[in-house]
Write a structure and sequence with these properties.
mainly beta
Length: 255
């Protein structure tokens, strides 16, 4: 098929750059609530894993090329065409599917002390799809020598829109409410999209280019597991995790 193109007008870029796209907000992280007491440790002998492959039943990834030439800096960061990751497939396997335990868990789980990372690299958000925990810090970095803005549009958490006009700028945010998904965008470069899930547990994964995913250390039990894709919506499956074992689950999307 012919290449589709994603782009924007130069006048839009100039206008957004002039207004700063950030509303003058501070880059300081939002104040964190009082930390809850540590959760009880999970007995590793009573946990299992979940693994599987996500397939796509309606052909290969379309050749959708991002048109970056309206911002010469972005265009100059690449030696060749850059394809959109809206539907990233390797044959019949589908990438960027977020798979997580949706219901059935009991108890409370500690958020990691180390921050999760979201970067603006080559005028593309990386990773496209990711997950963090409630109370975990998300660090967003501009690695490009051009203006970006980090515009998160949650439904259950506060919206924010912070300009990052200089290379190396960072901001940190902590989300206090579970939400699948939070869209991130850059109003300066409208092809830039990312999706971050916020969960109150660590049992999630994202399918790779070969469609595979794995989730380790799930307490033994029966759960509803959901797979989410930005174009194709969600699918659910009931699974039983046995202690010391691995459970397989498969999801198939079509377009």
């Amino acid at each position: 098929m012919k290449n589709a193109k994603i782009g924007f007008g130069a006048s839009t870029l100039v206008l957004l750059a002039l207004i700063g796209c950030g509303g003058g907000e501070s880059s300081a992280p939002a104040p964190a609530a009082d930390a809850p007491p540590p959760a009880a440790a999970v007995d590793s002998s009573q946990t299992g894993s979940l693994a599987g492959v996500v397939t796509f039943s309606n052909g290969d990834d379309p050749d959708i090329v991002i048109k970056m030439d309206a911002d010469p800096v972005c265009a100059g960061l690449h030696s060749g065409p850059v394809e959109s990751e809206t539907r990233l497939a390797d044959g019949s396997n589908l990438a960027n599917v977020f798979v997580y335990v949706k219901s059935g868990l009991e108890g409370r789980f500690n958020a990691p002390a180390e921050p999760a990372s979201l970067s603006q690299e080559g005028c593309v958000y990386t990773p496209r799809v990711s997950g963090i925990m409630v109370g975990q810090t998300l660090k967003v970095v501009n690695t490009d020598p051009t203006l970006h803005n980090v515009h998160a549009v949650p439904s259950n958490n506060p919206e924010f829109n912070q300009a990052q006009p200089f290379q190396g700028m960072e901001l940190e945010r902590v989300f206090e409410t579970s939400e699948v998904m939070i869209p991130f965008k850059c109003d300066v470069h409208p092809w830039m999209q990312s999706y971050v899930a916020v969960l109150d547990h660590p049992f999630f994964g994202v399918s790779g280019t070969n469609g595979s995913f794995s989730i380790e250390g799930i307490p033994a039990g029966t759960y509803t597991v959901e797979a989410w894709h930005e174009l194709f919506g969600t699918q659910t499956s009931e699974v039983t995790i046995g202690a010391g074992g691995s459970t397989d689950v498969a999801f198939s999307f079509g377009g």
